[in-house]
Amino acid sequence: MMENWQRAGFGLYVHWPFCAAKCPYCDFNSHVQQFVDQDRWRRALMAELNYWADRTEGRVLSSIFFGGGTPSMMPPETVAEIIECARKRWTPANDLEVTLEANPTSSDAARFQGYVDGGVNRISVGLQALRDDDLRRLGRLHTAKEGRRAFDIAQAACRRVSFDLIYARQDQDLSAWRKELTEALSFAGEHMSLYQLTIEPETAFGARHRAGKLQGLPDEDRSVDLWQITQELCEAAGRPRYETSNHAEPGAEAVHNMIYWQGGDWVGIGPGAHGRLGLADGRVATETLRTPGQWITAVEAVSVGLTSMEKLQDIDIKDEYAIMSLRTTAGMSLSRFHELGGEISQKRLQDIEREGFLERNDDTLRTTERGALLLNAILPELLVA
């Protein structure tokens, strides 16, 4: 049987944990730090990369993704050195995708050109909103005009440019989102990520929500209406949904995203990075220390900042594949699911198909548009423990 990385790709995720400010909705591992010893951080990232390269020899590298935090605060020289090392330690795919997330507050032409010269071939700009009042409520440090300028600079430097927007924001009605998304589509590139605002408990927004101080959030019905407007406008613009929150022109789907959703392998380096790897004794889930100081001290001592490396049980592997793949419009391979030891209740599957939430086409099972909204409710009904 082919290994997961051979079926669905192998990637490298690099986490840069530093930001200029902590956004109140963000539950990613990000930290505000006045001084960063850039040489020390470069050496530590390189050490952890080499640690995992020693244990994953012979693989074809499909993707490198610099996430955060704010990776556009990394020196271009550091980014270039990581890319060069990764290309040497693994066999790079002919179409190796190298993505860097960028914040409009750390975006200028020379910096973007430095990233591209160093090997980045895809930039993702965190616009988040096109309205200044909403940007302020989201805790962003840039204006809508500055966001557009950063996106234009990125497009001038790099052929493949994506952006992020957050919707279902406070007091956002249907007509306002329709107008804003129409504007975004007028300048969009080949790919965009459109996320509904989620109130995570361990964030500033989470605390405000518990205290009853986060007013104007949409109810479930309005959230569904906003999602449907999103699908309608993106379909009409030739950028249909290929995953719950991601839209692209056909053929422009993010390679790194698909590694996650199709159950491939990836190495995660940097503070708080997660990984999934098939090793000699089975598939493992890795996680690194979240606190930057603890992580870098550990790496300097033993070349890796692991906080856990858990061997996944068969039930975890098959369920994770089903949960992730059914988020995509490509769907789940039934034969691969069975190879992983998965089993589906055929009677319940037929019932769910009749209800219009799932559809089968030869070896592929996927959600319908109605089913995509109810995936979390469908999965427990579908999967046999």
Fold and architecture overview:
- Helix content is 42%, strand content 24%.
- α3 runs parallel beside α4 and α7 runs parallel beside α9.
- The protein has 16 helices and 17 strands.
- It is an alpha/beta fold and 385 residues long.
- The two termini are 23 Å apart.
- β7 (160-167), α7 and β8 form a beta-alpha-beta unit.
- The strands form 4 sheets. A 9-stranded mixed β-sheet has the order 9-10-8-7-6-5-4-1-11, with helices on both faces. It has a 3-stranded antiparallel β-sheet with strand order 12-13-14, with no helix packed on it.
- The protein has helices at 4-8, 38-55, 76-89, 109-117, 132-137, 144-157, 174-187, 204-210, 220-236, 255-261, 292-302, 314-325, 334-339, 346-354, 369-372, 375-382, and strands at 10-16, 18-19, 31-32, 60-68, 91-102, 122-128, 160-167, 191-196, 241-243, 246-248, 265-269, 274-279, 282-288, 306-311, 332-333, 358-361, 364-367.
